[in-house]
Amino acid sequence: MRFICIDDHVPETTIRLLRMATERRGVFFDHVHAANFVFDPARRAQPGDLIYRPAVSAAAQRVEQFVAHPQAASFHAEPDGVHFIPVNAPLIHARSGLPVPRYFYCTSAERAHLLEQVEQLGGFPVVLKVPGGSRGIGVMRADSAPALLSLVDYALSINQTPMLMPYIDDAVHWRVVVVGNRAVAAYRNPLDVDDFRSYGSRDLNDFTSTPDPDIAEVAVRAVRALRLELGGVDVLEHASGRLYLLESNFPLYHAHAEEVAGIGVSGAMLDHLIEKACRLACVSAPIPPSIRTTRLHVRDGFLDAMQAEALRDWVSPSAVAARGVALRVDHTGTSCELPVEGDPMLEPLLHRISALVGLKVTTGMTMRLRRYVEGEGHPIHGDQYEIDGAKLLATALLCVEAPSSGGETVFPDALPAPVAVIPQISRLAWWFNYLDDGQTDSSANHFARPVVAGVKTVLAIFFYVRPESPAMGVQPQGS
């Protein structure tokens, strides 16, 4: 799996944060420069790849369109959406029922016509906006007819068609970052000194990752209306409580909330693309009772309802602590090693799993309990470990408690395509970490996506085998 990042004079911070997010997830960062890109078909994306164009130039757009693949994940909601870039977003937003301020495009500097439009907007002051600018450049305020006429004259002389909008006073300017169907960050942009335009705040009090539901809803709908899954949305919140949608930007400068407030926007972007890539290019929910991809197997309904409920209670944090087992908490959730030998619940369970996998646990008679709450996951890794010369040949993972959203175990390099195993109570997955010749199998590398809602609890069983054992050449058992 690779992340194709299409650059064309993008801020260094943007590239650095995206690269760090890919490295944390074990995804290859393919840094593409639009200015010297060679349009070779071999450079096109493959199924399971991730694509993002943080650059705004026409050259970068051409590269994005060239490398696009229907089974590669981008922030375009439709497979061919990369080829259809809207040129009148305010009209799309207005026709989608979003609260867009009234506006006119100034195609003429004819005095009577302009003043009539100003009257319809509620009178002076008004705002002129020339498209294509950023950080407030191109947004101008006109307090009188002479100021408006001179500004429109100049804009038309440089082949720009400015948008005429009302000036909304006594309002808070919100920037909301939308990823997928979720507002992952929001922050207030205060007014600059002696300026009507706002600027990116560096005051932590202005930041929140849980914006007001009404503001978040407007922002998510604005991005969705443009057939996108990522956007930086500007919303004005008037003192009366009324909301005004100003614009939805794609691409966007997403680094501000991350650098100032530590909100993991880059990670949210990567996680969204990874989940989408698995959905487009691999097996996804609902997973059949048995699948085989390379050396991965899944069995649903491994426990009946009563067994599953009893096991969940037996491995709950309170029950585990009562048995004197120490729980460990870190960035990957809560975990512990549960002794199996003599345990009335776990020992019979281990024997059943061993019989299905076709291997015996010979090193460390324990099961590893892992419990993830919202926001917790596990970074990409491979289970290629050794203990006293014995290799971790196979891993089994039994889902004891399933979240309502998120928490998938993703194998990004599985063959013939990436796989996402969705957590479901009593779903047992097992895979082999080494090839028949004893070499490590990189397609077994995996990670756990963060839980979005609910709790995920799993039991991991590790099967260690010595190299001289016949089991090192074992073929996966049918399920």
Overall description:
It is built from eleven helices and 27 strands. The longest helix has 17 residues. Among the domains are: 76 residues, Rossmann fold (3-Layer(aba) Sandwich); 65 residues, ATP-grasp fold, A domain (Dna Ligase, domain 1, 2-Layer Sandwich); 191 residues, Jelly Rolls, CATH 2.60.120. Helix content is 25%, strand content 28%. It has 479 residues and is an alpha+beta fold. Strand 8 and strand 9 form a beta hairpin. The strands form six sheets. Strands 13, 14, 15, 16, 17, 19, 20, 24 and 27 form a nine-stranded antiparallel β-sheet that branches. The C terminus is likely disordered.
What labels describe this entry?
479 residues, Rossmann fold, 25% helix, alpha+beta, five-stranded antiparallel β-sheet, Jelly Rolls, Dna Ligase, domain 1
Kindly summarize this structure in a few lines:
This protein is of the alpha+beta class and 479 residues long. The chain has helices spanning 12-24, 58-67, 89-95, 111-120, 145-157, 213-225, 255-261, 265-281, 305-314, 317-322, 346-357, and strands spanning 2-7, 28-33, 50-52, 104-105, 126-129, 139-142, 163-166, 171-179, 182-189, 207-208, 230-238, 243-249, 292-293, 296-299, 328-330, 333-339, 366-372, 378-381, 386-387, 390-401, 405-406, 409-411, 419-421, 428-432, 446-448, 451-453, 456-465.
